[in-house]
Amino acid sequence: MPAELVRGQNHPLARTRLEIRVSAGRPVVAGATLADDRGTVRGPGRVAHPGAPALPGLEVPRQAAADHRLAVDLDAMPADVHRVTVLLALPAGTGGPTRFGAVAAPFVAVTGLDGTELASYTITDLDTESAVTALELYRRGDAWKVRAVGQGYADGLAALFADQGLPDARELAGAVHDAVARGLTRTVAAPPRPSGEAQVRAAAPAGHTAAGRSGATPAAPAAGGGGPAGPVDYRHPGRGAAPPAAPAAAAAEPGRPAVPVAGDATGWSMEERLYNQVWGMFEDLARTTAAYRSAVDFADSRMEQELDRALADPRSRLGGAADAAREAAAARHAALVDRAREAIDRDLAQLVAESEVVEPALPAAYADWDNPCWHAYRSPMEIPMAVRLGDLRLPESESVGLRVPMLVRLPLERGLWIDAGTTDALTDADVVRARAAHTAAELAARLLAVYPAGEFSVHVLDPAGTAAAAFAPLAGAGVLASPVARGASGVAETLTRLTERVDLVQMAVRAGVADALPADLDPAEQLLVVHDFPHGFDDRALTRLRYLADEGPRVGVHLLLVADRADAAEYGPLLDPLWRALLRLTPLPDDHLADPWVGHAWTYEPPTVPPGSEVVRRVLDEVARARQERRL
Description:
By secondary structure, the protein is of the alpha+beta class. The protein has helices spanning 156-163, 169-184, 197-202, 219-224, 270-310, 320-358, 395-398, 429-450, 468-477, 487-511, 539-551, 576-581, 615-631, and strands spanning 3-5, 10-13, 17-35, 47-48, 54-55, 58-59, 65-73, 83-89, 107-112, 117-122, 131-140, 143-153, 386-393, 404-409, 415-419, 456-461, 525-533, 557-563, 582-585, 590-594, 601-605. The longest helix is centred in the middle third of the chain and has 41 residues, at 270-310. The N and C termini lie far apart (73 Å).
């Protein structure tokens, strides 16, 4: 039976290859320190954190997330390490909670590689603390134990590190938070969870696949060989039952997967249900993949241990007995991997079936450009919940062609950066830059299309005029707020106008007189598309752009930057806050984004218009027509 620890309680560990699983409900930083027999950490080289995630016998996640898995191999620890301390901290400077008292109680579990829980601890009674020592693994003679600690620090990571004897604790804490901030630029933000959902999820270890409505089954228990285990329900909030409008035929027979239904999630409208359903598919794919990878890791570890035991005696390494031991270990390994593969294949098949019914039902804001809904497009009356910025996939889903729409809530909470420096072995750099410009133009067109007429304005800065072809559909349709700005003067004029708008709106909001803004102020959301940054920018323009990136989203001014970071290398760390403030997207498929649950590296695919299609031109013509009608 797994031990449910309370603060100060310890428990012996029967295994040395472990996973430490964390569920916090909100993104947290997870790390660990390696201490000697006196409890002293001898330097920053003994701290594993997102900026330095791997140490001998230890690996921690590279980013802040709501769920974490830390890999620990106690046999691989240096001989002078007597204590492994697991720490959690709230990310600094991200706009999220600043104290653990404002979030759900973090749940920490120590498990085997097969997912078998050995001990767990729910960290309660936290209030003003922003960092906490969760638990520690420590030597007792030749064995290891785990102890629940739960020591919080109101002064954050710096105080925690100082308490462990680390020199320059404040500098190290700053380095950790800088690494986390860099990681957040590649994380797809999860939608808000209903109240209490985080606590429900915290009651079970992460790493299993979704179950229940989608018909998915947990792979890790089957692969682990640890005996029967009931399904763990890791579905997205509200994916438990079809909405009232779902046909009765969708009910599955006992023991058979449910028939997929579009809108199979909670929500007040079909749009909201589809949004939650897509996010549920995203989470299901993340977790079923985590379960599969965990099961394969367990199979690899088990075969390694079996071979070590069988061939420990040098006299047994040759001959028929050794060959038989190797063959038996390989056969058991193959059986475990095959069972894990069967489980993930079932989950993938169910998700593919769900995708096939969900994709055709998506509204324009969520749909790809080849969806028939665009052919009947009319300017909407209301702002949608979210917009589709592309697709996401994992290596395990490529064989079945499964991609999940990447939906981002509206209004945008952060700007976008199309990385024109993304390259691959087959694509010329000039081609990548051209694709980056077209990707930016298509995203701008999509945002114009999903907002009601007159409620979204687009400005384009193209200082060198190198993206005229990409932005021609926008300019030709007459949907831009002003002509494409060129040259240094165009950059200065546009940035001045938008920064003044941000200043005016901020002052009006702070003074409580938002209805007293100038009559000629455009009340629509504003998008500034900047191509070929930093060409045409002087120091003043650069400062204004950074100001817009930081302050603009709060008052409806958003940034879409097309840039190769190498072109701005001369500015050094001055631009680091700018890059961190933007969500990086790529004009080519690239595995740079991460999910907020287990931190997989997802391949992002930008939205593409079918070759020869006139869909974007027709949509922009309808946007222009609706705007003209609104003015009359």
